Amino acid sequence: MQSFPTLYDNEVAIVRAEFSTGIVLDENFKQAIHEYQKVYTIFENLDAATSAAERMIQENTNIECTLLGRENSLIRYITPGGE
Length: 83
Description:
Blueprint: E1 12-18, E2 24-25, E3 40-43, H1 46-59, E4 63-69, E5 73-78
Antiparallel strand pairs: 1-2, 1-3, 1-4, 4-5
């Protein structure tokens, strides 16, 4: 699986997972089982990342998103039922 990316300034990374199992998903919403799969998506700031995560969950209610800051620090979880 992809290593955690280097984030700059206010950038935020999203990692997706199946809500029912917690299995990490790649950017194509496939289970991440290979090193080459891209599991992190980088956004300019928290607002952009939050909007993207909420859209993903609206489109697929079995997705949860974790928003991460620099050094892989947890910012927030967004799940189908809210945070």
